[in-house]
Structure formats: C-alpha cells, structure tokens
Amino acid sequence: MFREEAAKLTGAMVRLIGNFDIAEEVVQDSLVAALENWPAQGIPDNPGAWLMTAARRRAIDLLRRDQRYAEKIALLQRSTMPAEPAEADDRLRLIFTCCHPALAQEAQVALTLRAVAGFTTQEIAAAFLVSEPAMAQRIVRAKRKIVEANIPYRMPQGAELVPRVDWVLAVLYLMFNEGYLSRGPQVASRRDLAEDAMWLTSLVARLLPDQPEVLGLIVLMRLHLARSRARFDSNGDIVLLPDQDRALWDSTAIAQAVEVLDRAAAMSSPGPYQLQAAIAAVHSAAPSWRETDWQQIVALYDTLLRIADTPIVRLNRAVALSHVTGPQAALGEVNDLAISLGGYHLFHATRAELLDELGEVALAREARLRALELSQNPAERSLLQRKLRG
C-alpha cells in the first residue's frame, strides 16, 4: 500500500499545501495511523481514500499552529481530492518539481526516487553506488532547498520543459530498473513498479511527442517487459538470457516497440536511451542465443560510449566484446573498472564468468563470493549460490 499510495498522497499534499516537508510529514503520519488502526478496524474498502483523509486531517492539525496557512487550511477543508486527468497526474507533477534546476542534478534523481517511487535511502544509495549516510544527506539538502527556494509544484511550460526532461527520464529509468530487478532483499522484481515507470514515461511522451529520447526509453522498457515471462522459472530463480525459452517472449509487443524505435531513429537525434533500446532490439530479434549479432551490439556500445561514457556502459560492452574477441580481451577491460565499480556486485559476477571461461576456477570463486557479499536481490543471490555450489 505504501508503494502504491505514498507518491499520490505526497503529490496531492504538495499541490494543496505548497510545502514539500509538511507534505511528506503528513503522508508518513497517515501511514503510521494506518498501521495503528487497520489491525483492529480492518483494511478499509478504499485504502487510498482512507489514507488521503488521514493525511488531510493531519495537515490541518499541523497548519492550525501557524496563522500564515489559514488559506491552505480552508482549501484542505473544502477539498475532496477529486480525480484529475492522466496528463495532470500528481506523480508526474511531483517528478518535475523534484527535477527543478535549482537542485543539484544528483539530488533531483535521488529526491524523486524517494518521493515518487517510495525507495528507501538504502535502495537509492545502491542505485547511485554511494554510501547510505551520504545519500541521506543529499536527500535532506534537496528537501531543504525546495522549501528555501519556494520551488513551485507545477508542470513546466514552454521553453523550460525540454531541458527538464533529461533528469525526469533518469528518474523513470531508475524506477523501471528497480521494478525489473530489485536491489533490495525482499523481492526479486516488482513488475507493478516497472509498469508504473513505463506509464509515467508515456505521460511524458504525450507532453513531448517529438522527443526521440522519450520514445527511446519507452521502447527500452517495453522490450524488457516483453521478455519478462521467461526471466524466472517456477521456483522464482533467474533464467539467464542464453537459457530462456524465447517462445515465452511477447513477439507482438517486441514488433510494436521496434516500430516506435524506428520512428525515434527517423528524428536523427540519437541518445543513450535509443541506443540501449537498439541493443535490446538486437537481442529481441535473435532467434536464439547462438544467432545473436554480437558485432552489431559491440558497435552500438561503441556509439553509446561516445555519448555516455560510464563504467556501467563499459562493463556491458566488455560482456558483448567477450562474444566477439574472446574472454581474455574482455577481462582486461573489466579489470580496468575495478576502482570505479569495486562496490558493484555485477562487476564481480561478470569477472567470475570471464575467469571461468579462462579456466581460473579459484579466482572465479573469489570474485563470485565478493558478488554474493554485495548482492541483496534474492534471485541474484540464489543464482550466485548455485554457481558456487556447481
């Protein structure tokens, strides 16, 4: 319920109160009230409406202490929180508010993941590959800045809209990734969160239908979800791409996504999401693992590096390169990333796979153990443990 309702509640409260800190406080208080009341009273028929009423009452109580908020109190007392059109969804407004240029770019993404997706500080820190205390401070500073700068809760208009989109897309991309393969220990994946990220991206696309990167991100999400039925077996264990039953892939969704990607490519403005979508499209088009066009994938990664040269992109390119030139060259490129990705579990898992191919069993085991130490996702941990036993 927290995952489903917190962002809607926060967005609605910010819209009515205009104060981010108070909005977040009353939403948290309403969730505490639910924990206290629902065990005795039962879960209400409409939990979202119950939480909204509790949040509104708590907001009125808080604001009554300060006469400056008399107008806001009256607004809260009159409001029935009517449903609004999808284009005016409170979560989308909240994303654009958190992605205001007055905030540091890293803080924009972190705060939005917290307010909109309901990520914990630990989950956000893992997504950024930084420590949890450092991320907590970043979030606190961002919230303070919103209050001090009196950042408005609204959709940007005209010329101010496009520059804000890049960081909105970054937020939605991280939301999707968390849903597609969670970094936390509770569940392996959260399809509802992944689908919610894709839906919010579609709202951005309605606002900006001629932005190729928005289309690229939608395609990337659709292609991954189209293959999702084959990703886990009946026991909930991960099925790696070489072993997946491709008959379970949604071929209709893949074809529709490729059509959108072609439309984005026709705009002649390639970007990171389009290129990642193109890589996913090559995988989706291959009839089998053996028939994957690895040379094309490496070429796409080379293009992506010229636009977004990051350690994660280099790691993924090294995996593709291993299928073209062999594991030795790929391992050299992976080892070069040891400093920047030493705390990233997939860096060590990738090293383990390459070392296995080279017959370095002891080193592969050492790398896999380190990956297991750093991984929290239950399905990934299970996969690593099976490989260690095998």
What's the short version?
The chain is mostly helical.
Task: State Rg.
Answer: 23 Å
Fraction of helical residues: 55-70%
What's the story with the biggest beta sheet?
none
| Structural class computed from helices and strand pairing | mainly alpha
Compute the number of strand runs.
Answer: 0
Beta-strand portion reads under 5%
Helical run tally? 20
Overall, the morphology is globular
End-to-end distance, in Å?
A: 40 Å
- Round the mean pLDDT to the nearest integer and report it: 87
SSE order: HHHHHHHHHHHHHHHHHHHH
Q: Uncertain spans, ≥5 residues at pLDDT below 50?
A: 82-88
Describe the structure.
Among the domains are: 2-83, no CATH class; 90-164, Arc Repressor Mutant, subunit A, CATH 1.10.10; 310-390, Tetratricopeptide repeat domain (Serine Threonine Protein Phosphatase 5, Tetratricopeptide repeat), CATH 1.25.40. 40% of the residues are buried. Helix 15 runs antiparallel to helix 16 (327-335). With 390 residues, the protein is an all-alpha fold. It has helices at 2-17, 20-41, 47-63, 70-78, 90-98, 105-115, 121-128, 132-148, 161-180, 191-207, 212-226, 251-265, 272-285, 294-307, 311-325, 327-335, 338-341, 345-357, 361-374, 378-389. It has 20 helices and no strands.
Could you list some keywords that capture this structure?
390 residues; mainly alpha; Arc Repressor Mutant, subunit A; Serine Threonine Protein Phosphatase 5, Tetratricopeptide repeat; 20 helices; globular
Chart the SSEs and their pairings:
Layout: H1 2-17, H2 20-41, H3 47-63, H4 70-78, H5 90-98, H6 105-115, H7 121-128, H8 132-148, H9 161-180, H10 191-207, H11 212-226, H12 251-265, H13 272-285, H14 294-307, H15 311-325, H16 327-335, H17 338-341, H18 345-357, H19 361-374, H20 378-389
Helix pairs in contact: 1-2, 1-3, 1-5, 2-3, 3-4, 6-8, 6-9, 7-8, 9-10, 9-11, 10-11, 11-12, 11-13, 12-13, 13-14, 14-15, 15-16, 16-18, 18-19, 19-20
